[in-house]
Amino acid sequence: MFEHCDWSACGDSLALVFRALAIRPIFVLGDPASTRELLRALPEATGYLNLKPQQLESADGIYGYRERHEMRRMFLEDFNPRAGTTEPLTSSDREQIESLYATGDGGGIAFAPFQLNTGFFRGVRRGGELVAVAGVHVVSRNESVAAVGNIFTHPEYRGQGLAQQVTSAVVIALKDAGIRTIGLNVEHSNIAATRAYEHLGFRTHFSYYEGVADRLPLQG
Full-prediction pTM beyond 0.90? Predict the structure, then answer.
């Protein structure tokens, strides 16, 4: 995905703008001082800004969040698979997947059609209708790392363990492909989802903040 990435550096710190997703994620790794310098240098008017707690003040006066979400970054430790029948999803299922995301607020905000080409999307159907889906945001076979995501269940089918079922199927496929480091993100306040992922063997490693952020007008 390197062709979709713009990198900026300040000493040992890095900023990444990822252009393959419409929300345009912005990731910054570094101490507060270098984070502030990197954010000042970015040309992005709007992006999905990811910052750790110690970096939040670095964005003051440079970017303002429209809405900020506290998130957990979880990694798979001891996998406890969830039984259930799922099916692989491909690019031919794109329209149904997008229709499923449209049934609830926030579904699929980090989904892009290219992700289906990874071969790691799984779904559950009821009466021929796609009611649950999980996949990946990105995966690197070279680095043996994957970010599980795009997990969504139709509002009328929640509470049946379908999110665990499809997520488990994605993890199995990733492990079968030799991927060793498997992570996902979940909103800190979403206790039900957090417990579901913990049941599968994911554990929280750190917290961070994300959300759409706009560059603020220069002051003074």
Answer: yes
